[in-house]
């Protein structure tokens, strides 16, 4: 009799364990020891978003250097001012443009001396600017009547160029 009860008990136990259990609460999956944090996909998405934002910022920030047009306009204005200085002071004024920059000088009757007062201080071209012609350095001399020998100077940077021309009457023009 005892053997029959044992067999029945085993059958009952197998029947209970083979039946699907009803779960009232969802049990978390066992991911091993402490699996908190971000997935690789989440981290890659964050890196991609930061990259896009950085690219937008870099593209929207303007070049801090003045453009070739601004350099050319400044040089043309200073040439015009040098012509006016020659007429008003009744003495020749020269402008010498080199690949590095430009400067002004005045003739006092005996020798040329640097003119660096007011707007006539020496200037350097913005980095990356090339000057044509560059060898020998261009020298434009305005006589006391404002007349000068015709000359042209071309500034080029980043595939942009501007030409500053002085005609025989000493008039300064900006082309390009």
From TrEMBL:
Membrane topology per record: Single-pass membrane protein
Organism this protein belongs to: Brevundimonas denitrificans
Residues annotated as transmembrane: 40-61
Subcellular location: Cell inner membrane
Classification via Pfam families: GspH (PF12019), N_methyl (PF07963)
Keywords: Cell inner membrane, Cell membrane, Membrane, Methylation, Transmembrane, Transmembrane helix
Protein name: Type II secretion system protein H
InterPro entries: N_methyl_site (IPR012902), Pilin-like (IPR045584), T2SS_GspH (IPR022346), T2SS_protein-GspH (IPR002416)
UniProt cross-references to PROSITE patterns, sorted A to Z: PROKAR_NTER_METHYL
Domain General secretion pathway GspH, chain residue ranges per copy: 72-170
UniProt biased composition (Basic residues): 11-20
Family: Belongs to the GSP H family.
Region (Disordered): 1-32
């Amino acid at each position: 009799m005892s053997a029959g009860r044992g067999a029945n008990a085993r059958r009952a136990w197998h029947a209970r364990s083979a039946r699907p259990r009803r779960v009232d609460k969802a049990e978390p999956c066992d991911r091993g020891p402490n699996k908190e944090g971000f997935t690789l996909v989440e981290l890659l998405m964050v890196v991609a978003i930061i990259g896009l934002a950085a690219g937008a910022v870099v593209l929207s920030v303007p070049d801090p250097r003045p453009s070739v047009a601004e350099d050319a306009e400044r040089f043309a204005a200073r040439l015009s001012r040098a012509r006016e200085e020659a007429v008003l002071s009744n003495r020749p004024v020269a402008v010498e443009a080199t690949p590095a920059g430009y400067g002004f000088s005045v003739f006092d009757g005996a020798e040329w001396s640097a003119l660096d007062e007011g707007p006539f201080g020496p200037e350097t071209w913005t980095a990356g600017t090339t000057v044509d012609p560059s060898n020998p350095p261009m020298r434009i001399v305005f006589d006391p009547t404002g007349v000068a020998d015709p000359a042209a100077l071309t500034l080029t940077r980043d595939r942009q160029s501007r030409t500053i021309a002085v005609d025989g009457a000493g008039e300064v023009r900006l082309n390009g």
